[in-house]
Amino acid sequence: MRHLSAARRTIAALAMLSLFAPPPSFGWGREGHLMINRLAAESLASTLPAFMHTPAAIDEIEYLGPEPDRWRSPAEPELNAEQAPDHFIDLELADLIGPLPRRRYDYIAEIYAASLTHPHLADQLRPERVGFQPYIVSEVWERLKSAMRDYRELSAKHADTRPVEAAILFYSGWLGHYVADGAQPLHVTVNYNGWAEKENPNGYTTDHKIHSQFESVYVGANIKPNQVKPLLTTEHAVSDEWTDYLAYLRHSATLVERVYQLDKAHGFDGAGTPEARQFTQERLAAGASMLRDMIDAAWEQSAQPVPDWHG
């Protein structure tokens, strides 16, 4: 019964979200995305092809860190509208459908089905409002794995690999943007830019400033790569990309309130506080570590035989 009561409270709180319409936000800002992609590229496993360890390759992966944010210009409104939901997922809403299916269109169908069973949330339970974050990660990661498989085949034939090398670097950099977004707790919650739920007993900010203040202004002014690099974790084998990545997002979700606590203590104002600095460095390191591990996993798994096609 306590579980049901908690679920009802959550649904009631989510019903209030239609009253809030914060402006769109960008993940980590340019500096954070460049930092995460470069740190990941510099720490890739030695078993990856030699071209991925060259300075030119590392520079390319770094440059591509902010790439999907470059697609969010009002000069390209259709592109912006199509891919903006890939940067986030509001897990409080997504979890109303139960375990997330692995495929994007199954997820879309289940979100629409949930809007019928929760009609008071119908405006919020639209796929583009709930977000697609883990789906774009899975899809780009599979593109990367496919390109790496082609690289293996071409290398075995002593054929020209330069075109597929370019594709691998692009997919690696593109993937990095979304993996980095997943390390930012405000990309996995309805409270992404000011506390939006009805219940706010701790008096967290409701202004629509916290998102950019944390990930862009504060990072750009205070956090440097040499502070983040020592915090990268040791290499971790990714056995099942979907499951491991969802666990990564779930961990980020546990830190949402911590962001608001630090903000309330003026941790992201100016030079901030030591606690806010440590927290931000750890989140950037988590993004770089996960990206490194996912690129490494794509290479390892690209060696596996392709399953037979069954139509």
Automatic annotation (TrEMBL):
GO terms for molecular function: hydrolase activity, acting on ester bonds. It comes from the Bacteria. InterPro entries: PLipase_C/P1_nuclease_dom_sf. Residues 1-27 form the signal peptide. Gene3D superfamilies: P1 Nuclease. Keywords: Signal. This is S1/P1 nuclease. It comes from Acidipila rosea.
